[in-house]
Amino acid sequence: MRIQPREELLNLWRSVVKVSLDGDKWQWGGRYERNSISDAEQLLCIIYPATVLPYFRLDQPDETADDILEVLRPLGDELDIPQRLIELLIEHIEYYTDSDGPSFAGGSYFKGATDGADPTPEQMQVDVVDSFSMAVSLMLSTLSLVRGVGNTVMNPEVERRLRHLERIANVRLTAAMVGLLRSFVINVFTPDSNEGQALLGTVNRTNRSNRQVAEELRSSLQEIRASLGDVTFGFRQQRATELIENRNRLFEIGWTWGIAEDAPEVEIAPSVTNQRSGVAESAPFLYFTVNALDGIADLFSGRTTVLGLLNEEQQRLAGALKLRWELTQRYWGTIATFGDSRRWPLEDLPWRTTDDRESDHFSLLIISLVLQDQEVRGTSTMELPRLAEILMKLGERGRVTSRATRDDAAVRYHTPGTEIQLGGSGGDGPDLIWRLNDFSPLLLKDVLRLAKLSRDADLREDLVQAADEIWDHIFRRRIQHSINAGLWDDAANVFEALKKHNDRPSWYYTERIVECIVMAINLIRDPLPRSSSIHAYARGILSETDNLFDLELLEANVVDRGALRAQLEEARLNLNHAHEIASLRPATAVGIAMEILRMLEKVGVARQNAAEGTG
User: Strands 418-422 and 432-436: what pairing?
Assistant: First the structure.
């Protein structure tokens, strides 16, 4: 892997600190005015790797590596750094806490659907799913940091601030989980509606009658349909009831962009005293669904479980979210691979949504959902190469691994980005849109996730090479000038048609690069899949080494206690070790055997020369 994740992450940390510190004061905001999402992304660039990767821990001063201390030196020494992060987290949480509780507003990330129609102040205060999801990830990282620092802190004032941070982080985490519960939706429609026709057109790859395809689709989704009756808390049960009672209906599930317009309050969260009314259209959006699932997954990570980060109220909420999480992945995994196994709907690029919009960006989002489903339900060796082929095509079509032509429409995936109309957002002002410009990081993330899933050595190697190629594209998009150098994103560096460079950092984009680097590190830590060819090769090499070693022992003087005997004893230990590791690390075993073979050859040549000299 050409990506050097430790070096890249440390360089990124150096840039984050350089950009964020003005003297001793932390500067919020970047390309956009600060908002609850952007500030969380800025903090997660440091906090997330520091709490999920053992190599980058900051909560144990005695174990902080020297290169990390050098990079973060502007924040202080090994004792100052975690305390400084604690204060920044407290500042962030308190800033986004109103008189009625935590705020998860989209703020400057909201854009007007038409030029000159800016969002009103009321619209900018509307809660959004991205903020809920980022808050879940950041608050879990915060609680993990609190646990680690709490084991070493001696100062009573620091201990007091830690307890304060733990309390307010739990309040924000609980509120974010409630927000995610109330943003989950089911969109129910008839087969002959516009949505029904769009869905059937997407999954019908064999030109059969829509009636036949609808019946098969309903059958494939029957178990999911029945399980939706168990979805409670913060959800209008009438929609699930309608779906279950009328089997002719079709549906889609996932997360809308904010609190759903018909979402009731969550009764099992008494600590969240003010649950705001929702305005978001009760229909799922692929982008917000993928982001919601990523945040929810952190609730069930090994870190969360081992450290026991969730309190009793949060565990109840997590149970309700897990059901939604599982059903949503299964639903989209079924839709994407529905029908004739010779050609999936997913393979017919680009993906078309039920509101009749098409985009390769949507195809990447669907693959993310399919891969998450594969992680939960287990992988099929037949499916992974097909997914890899689709990702390679999307890399070319999105001009990540191929050259952009003049006036290439694919450049819009990167800047200004794919636009999503936020249904229900125009009540207090103009209709709003959300821009997605994370095509390249999302592609890299999907490739790395697929590589980790693969147990085929050749496929994994192909995917690692693809990840390197995508990283080359992303690496060149770093800001190269001004104080913000080293952060992302300046798409004009790789697309000649873009004449205007952007030298202000996008925390939205940069945080997603951090996620990719963390995934690359986890891929490196993951044991390589077994290759039958290299195992057979290793067995052959070790067999020959065993035979030649045994022959040498037959010739060696048993009572000799000189250098040769010491060499043979060392070789015996090394050969035994090679056999022990051959099943897990065959290439390493071969390397050990080669050293022994070279030693035996030298001994044999020396013996032959000695014999000829004597003769």
Answer: antiparallel
Cα(451)–Cα(456) distance, integer angstroms: 9
Pairwise CA distance, residues 11 & 486, whole Å: 7
CA distances from 587 to 284, 520, 521, 534, 535 (A): 48, 22, 21, 7, 8
Neighbours of 323 (CB within 10 A): 16
Say if residue 615's pLDDT is above 60.
no
**At which residue do the structure tokens 């992974």 appear?**
384
**Tokens found for residue 87:** 């204060």
Compute the half-sphere exposure of residue 327: CA atoms within 13 Å on the CB side of its CA. Answer: 26
Lookup: tokens for 426:
């125009």
Q: What is the CA radius of gyration of the chain?
A: 28
Q: In sequence order, what are the residues at sequence separation of 6 or more whose Cβ sits closer than 8 angstroms to the Cβ of residue 57?
A: 50, 51, 63, 64, 148
Reported as a pLDDT band with limits 50, 70 and 90, residue 585 is confident
Backbone phi, psi, residue 436, to 5°: -105, 120
Q: Which of 40-49, 111-120, 238-247, 401-410 has the lowest mean pLDDT?
A: 238-247
- CA-to-CA distance for 118 and 432, rounded, in angstroms? 9
Q: Which of 158-162, 282-286, 608-612 has the lowest mean pLDDT?
A: 608-612
Give the list of residues 6+ apart from residue 24 with CB closer than 8 angstroms, or none: none
Percent of the chain with pLDDT over 90: 69
Q: By CB neighbour count within 10 A (0-12 exposed, 13-18 middle, 19+ buried), where does 429 fall?
A: middle
At 21, list the tokens. Answer: 């510190």
In this structure, are residues 213 and 191 in contact, taking their beta carbons and an 8 Å threshold? no
Angle (deg, nearest 10), helices 507-525 and 439-453: 10
Q: Model's pTM, two decimal places? A: 0.89
| Strand arrangement, sheet containing 111-112 | 111-112, 432-436, 418-422
Q: Is 179 exposed, middle or buried (0-12, 13-18, 19+ CB in 10 A)?
A: buried
Q: Which helix (H) or strand (E) holds 388?
A: helix 383-397
* Type of residue found at 39: D
Say if CB 377 and CB 254 are below 8 A apart. Answer: no
- In the predicted model, what is the mean pLDDT of residues 110-116? 90
Reduce the DSSP state of residue 574 to 3 states and report it. helix
Of the candidates 306, 343, 298, the one whose C-alpha atom is nearest the C-alpha of residue 322 is 298
Best CA proximity match to 184, nearest among 326, 51, 59, 382 = 326
238/336: higher pLDDT: 336
Residue 432 phi/psi, 5° resolution? -110, 155
**Structure confidence at residue 516 (pLDDT):** 97
Q: What is the pLDDT of residue 557?
A: 59
